[in-house]
Every structure is written in C-alpha cells, then in structure tokens.
C-alpha cells in the first residue's frame, strides 16, 4: 500500500524509530508504578466491552470498540490518586485540526477531525536529546521516484492557509497542550476500516498536524528548528489490536529534505487479547469452548497506560 507510514514520513519530513522511546518504555518496565496490579481491572474491562455490554449474542465492533476505550481511560484515571497532576487533563471529542506547510514546491494541508484528543495543562517534555535531534541531519528520507509522493492525495483549491488547533485551544483555555490522540477504528464492516498500516499513517499525519499548528501558534509561521520540540502521542485501536506512536516535532522548516528531521517512534500491532468467545461452543451437548476472553496480553495495556502517564511520571 503506497498510502502508508513511508509516505507520511516524506510528507512530514520524519525519521522513523521502531518501538517506544526510552522515556515511555521506562514507565512500562517500572515495577514501582504497580501497573501489574491493574491487570484484573483490565480483564474485567475487556469482558465488559466484548461479552456483557449488550443484549445481542455478540456486540458489533462499532459498539464494543468505544466501550473498551472508555473502560481503559477510566482505569487510567484511577492513577490520579497517586499522581494528582493527572487531573490536569481534559478529553476533547470531535476536535477539528488544520495545518498547512510547504514541502519542496508543494503546498500541503492536513485537516479534519482529530479523533479523541487528550489535552494537558503542561506539554510533554522532548523525548529525544539535542544530540539525537542533530544526528537526524544525516538521515536520508526515502523518495518514491518516479512516483510522486503526493500521487494519491486529494487536490483542492486552498483559498486560506489555515493553521488552526480547532475549538480545543481558544485563548485562555487552561488545557492548551495536545497530549495524546486516540483513533477508534470501529467500523463493523472490514472494508470501511483503515488497515493497520493506513491507520498508523493517519495517526502520524494528525499527530504532526496538531504539533505543527501548536508550534505556529507559539512561535509564528517562520520555518525554524524549534528550541523546545513539541511532542504529541497517538493511539489507534479497532477494539483488539493497538498501535502506539510518539511524535516529536523538531523543525517547522519542511520545504527541503536537508537538515534536522522530525522523529516518530511506532510500536505496531499489539493485541490486547487474542480472542473473545461471546457464546460457548457446544458439540454433542458438551461445551468445547466456554465463553470468555483468551490470550490476554497485559503488556499492551501497560503501554496504553504508559502513554497516558507520560509527562507526569
């Protein structure tokens, strides 16, 4: 598929790093946080979304995916007793974003609904050091010659170059920093859902768009390497499979492929559980597969929670 992360990297002048950055991975692996104590709650949350929250024999994805998300966010909020600064967060729904930039000689714009956006009173600190940022100068971005990297993008007439963080960040709004975007790919019909690679590309474009709009609001529209990089995270899920992303905007100088690049860390295709058996399987009067959740993967929730805690812990 051409419309994937590789294309999004070129459009956003971004270097990809596989896996989560050390700042987030350290939260996942920190035993002092007691994340393992939450495993029972998470199993209950999955069972509630997949097995119990419906009168139907089996809930549809468009129903259980949002329910599971709300359940997991509720468990994350329980940590605010231990970390009071977590209360300085706000979830905004149906936030619109518009960000415009020039790449080589092409004017580009990302705009639309940003999924569910968690905002914070304070920004996430940079996850890459100044040395790591400078080292990106040596990174060579992949080109697609002879195919244009904009081949499948929609062409429109742009009458106004918008850089707008939407209704979420009006002047004086206390939760003025984008923290994490959540994309629920919950269409029941498979052909209406983004495939994981497409979802990761969408996550990258919107994390970049939110970071760029915020950078321009803070520092103006002149292209520059940022003294204080802007970090925006993204989580995508279809209610079972999770995609995790941390994006760091290092530069708004995007015209040329030379110089400092932006950075993105991606942890792909993490199952929270293997299967949900909504009704027992019976053969000749004997239950061969009982109803329930199988193949639960606690590390996937730990990563979800680590992104939530990032910037606080």
TrEMBL record:
Subcellular location(s) of the protein: Mitochondrion
UniProt protein name: Large ribosomal subunit protein mL37
Top-rank taxon: Eukaryota
Family: Belongs to the mitochondrion-specific ribosomal protein mL37 family.
An individual GO BP term: translation
One cellular component term from this protein's GO annotations in UniProt: ribosome
Pfam families xrefs: PDCD9
GO molecular function: structural constituent of ribosome
Originating gene: Mrpl37
Keywords: Mitochondrion, Ribonucleoprotein, Ribosomal protein, Transit peptide
């Amino acid at each position: 598929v051409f419309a994937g992360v590789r294309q999004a990297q070129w459009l956003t002048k971004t270097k990809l790093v596989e896996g989560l950055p050390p700042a987030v991975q350290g939260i996942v692996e920190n035993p002092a946080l007691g994340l393992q104590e939450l495993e029972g709650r998470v199993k209950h949350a999955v069972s509630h979304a997949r097995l119990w929250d419906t009168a139907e024999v089996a809930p549809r994805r468009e129903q259980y995916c949002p329910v599971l998300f709300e359940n997991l966010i509720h468990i994350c909020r329980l940590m605010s007793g231990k970390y009071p600064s977590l209360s300085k967060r706000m979830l905004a729904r149906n936030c619109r974003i518009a960000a415009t930039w020039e790449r080589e000689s092409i004017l580009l714009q990302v705009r639309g609904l940003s999924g569910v956006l968690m905002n914070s009173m304070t920004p996430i600190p940079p996850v890459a050091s100044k040395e790591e940022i400078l080292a990106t100068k040596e990174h060579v971005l992949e080109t697609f010659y002879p195919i244009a990297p904009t081949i499948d993008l929609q062409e429109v007439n742009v009458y106004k170059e918008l850089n707008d963080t939407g209704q979420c960040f009006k002047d004086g709004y206390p939760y003025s920093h984008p923290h994490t975007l959540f994309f629920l790919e919950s269409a029941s019909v498979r052909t209406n859902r983004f495939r994981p690679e497409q979802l990761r590309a969408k996550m990258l474009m919107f994390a970049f768009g939110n970071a760029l709009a915020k950078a321009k609001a803070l520092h103006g529209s002149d292209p520059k390497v940022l003294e204080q990089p802007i970090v925006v995270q993204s989580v995508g899920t279809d209610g079972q499979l999770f995609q995790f992303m941390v994006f760091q905007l290092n530069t708004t100088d995007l015209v040329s492929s030379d110089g400092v690049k932006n950075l993105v860390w991606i942890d792909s295709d993490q199952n929270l559980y293997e299967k949900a058996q909504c009704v027992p399987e019976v053969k000749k009067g004997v239950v061969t597969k009982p109803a329930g959740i199988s193949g639960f993967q606690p590390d996937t929730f730990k990563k979800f929670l680590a992104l939530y805690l990032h910037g606080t812990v």
